[in-house]
Design goal:
The complex is a heterodimer. Chain A contains eight helices and ten strands. Chain A has helices spanning 44-52, 69-75, 93-103, 110-119, 135-148, 165-181, 193-199, 233-253, and strands spanning 5-13, 19-28, 33-37, 59-64, 67-68, 78-81, 153-157, 185-190, 202-206, 213-218. In chain A, helix 4 (110-119) crosses helix 5 and helix 7 crosses helix 8 (233-253). Chain A is globular and about 50 Å long. By secondary structure, chain B is an all-alpha fold. Chain B has two domains: 17-244, Orthogonal Bundle (MetI-like fold), CATH 1.10.3720.10; 250-513, MetI-like (MetI-like fold), CATH 1.10.3720.10. The chains are: A alpha/beta, B mainly alpha. Chain A binds chain B through residues 49, 52-54, 72-76, 78-80, 82, 84, 86, 88-90, 99-100, 102-104, 129, 131, 149, 155, and chain B through 140, 142-143, 145-152, 156, 160-161, 164-165, 167, 239-241.
Chain lengths: 259, 513
Amino acid sequence: MSVEIICKGLAKTYTGGVEAVRPLDLTLVAGQTTALVGPSGCGKSTLLRMIAGLEDASSGTLTIGGAPAADTLARAGLAVAFQDPSLLPWRTVRQNIELALDLARKPRKAADIDQLIHLVGLDGFADTRPGALSGGMRQRAAIARALSTNPDLLLLDEPFGAVDELTRAQLAADLPGIWEARGTTTLLVTHSVTEAVTLSDRIIVLSPRPAAIVADIKVDLSRPRPSNLKALPAFQTHVDATFAALSHGVADTLPKAAQ
Amino acid sequence: MTHARQWIGPILALVLWEGFAHLFASAFVLAAPSAILLYLYENAGLLTRALGVTLANAAAGFLIGNAAAILLAGLAIALPRSENIVRALALVVFCLPLVATGPVLRILFGPGAGPQITLAALAVYYTTLIPLLVGLRAVPSDWLDLVRSYGRGRMTALLRVRAMASFPYLVAGLQIAAPAAFLGAMVGEFTGAERGMGVLTIRAMRDLNIEMTWALATVATAVAVLAYLAIGYAARRVLTEEPPVILAAPAAKRRNLFSSIAMVTFSTAAILALWWVGLDALNLSSFFAKRPDDLVDALFLAPDATQTRAALAAALSETLIFLFPGYLAGLLAGATLAMAIILAPSLANTAMPLAIALRSVPIITTAPLVVLLLGRGAVGTVTLIAIMVFFPTFIACLHGLRQAPGRATDVMRSYAASDMAILRHVRVPAMLPAFFAAARINVPASILAVTVVEWLATGNGLGALMALSASLSDYDMLWSAVVLTTLLAVLGYGLVGALERRVLQTYAPEQLA
């Protein structure tokens, strides 16, 4: 099922007065992949956590598929892949995936789990505990876990941070197909501009903290993305536009003398 | 080769022990290993029966105490508001002096195994509760977020994530609890049981039977070490990681003055109310069961109130004179040996397993031996307290020293810093949190040690006063001494905790978060 996410005046100020996210309006189109890009510490993850229901907003409203966010949470229609893989160390890769299915009250289907494990390139490691996996392999297991419940809304918080370049390219080629086929609405928080352009339909560029939207860039590239994507002039145009918006957002906050 | 070398030390020690025992046979202090073995062989039946009785009581107490600890820890996590009061009550009960609780329980239960089992349960619940609370809390927030992101609540997080994550901590607690249960059961037997290791220990000390005293100590030590190793072995078959070294809960969160005062007042009121209501509910004779108002009466209003206060003050000062030097000496010795081992790592291979095992030897076993060796004077008392404090401090400090961040030591090495410089600049600061955690948890332990020695050996101080007033049925004095000893332990614990927070602010601010 595709769901639309509507944030109206959503803001976060921490106790002590630190403003993490300025009141912002944002609509994530159902079935699309939206990337959130911005400098380190700008509040991207805070925004994602508010949408995930893990952080309370200081003000504003948030609806997921027309219902308050709490409902989606209650239906377990949401999955998050965290920055840290956060696999439970006493469970094998398969058991970690099964845990997510249990938590979401969904049936365990061995064949589906095997297929996901194959998709993220962990064949032969299904019964291995996270302690024996490399950082990148753990991250891939966490992605498989997030996909396992077939969520309406998939939130990815820099999920490729620890993954090596080759695997990253492979995942970037395979993953969008999965969430597109299922009509999953996806929000991807990333540092990497090229990753944002490769994976998403739309890029939201945020200013340094407190986060405010400085640009909303539509990624006008065909799906599925061609294998020579990065060689296309259109790809470079999108990358340049995103970089320009990012530097503009940063420049706005620098003292005059430094510009 | 290295395997063979490990045995050289212990064998040499045994040979020396045998030699000294024969050399000083006339002094009646040291039994030779051969004499101990002979005694064990000739009295195997007697010892086996006694051991069976004590083990059964210890096992019952172990089960009850740990079940209580697991329930209380679960309650504290499920209802976070209850955690402070659970902790405060647990600490106060842990600080109650065994010397006095033994006789009181004997009166409550009469003949039978009641006091032995209760004391064993009381001896273990705290050693399990605290690591378990640490473990239940020490779950990375991401794991809890994962559960929440699927719309599930606190109970699911407790059962699916926290319970499993705290399992290694539970094991660490149980490893210390097993010997503690044995100690509790033995103390219970001191208070007038008919059978058991405690009864034999009393008999051996009274008869000045050196072989028997040493043989009993050997059996009790073996039981403690075996229990420790057995739980560790069983756990390693289930666990994916080593049980962590946990000595004390991390220092409490920093509160402002107002909420600290409120917390202390609330806890004190809750404890007084429980004491009052508990005695009323049990419907005990007021001759023996003293309520808080009886103590106010005895200490301030009765005609002999001045004498009662003077006797308590005299006993307190006698206790403190030995307590301070013993406590500090134990802390210093533990930290020093840990640092020595870091500088000469080859020492660790033999010293570590020995120290871990000896940490669990009950004081009831060592007390008669130290008294035999060093006499009933100041040296013996101070040494015993120091021994009690030494092992936990040593293990904690060594753990802390090894936790030093690898990158920081690498930076030091890249400047060709000496081992000594690395120790001073990187490892010792990394050790301080563990050192202070050990110092805090050792306050009640050292008070237990001093009162036990006073009771069994020196005849001075609060320990002897409690034992004497119990035997004279002077229950006003007994209850007052119990309150004073408990207050001393709780206050000491709080003071070291405050010092610990100051240190953590500088050296490990993340532990205060």
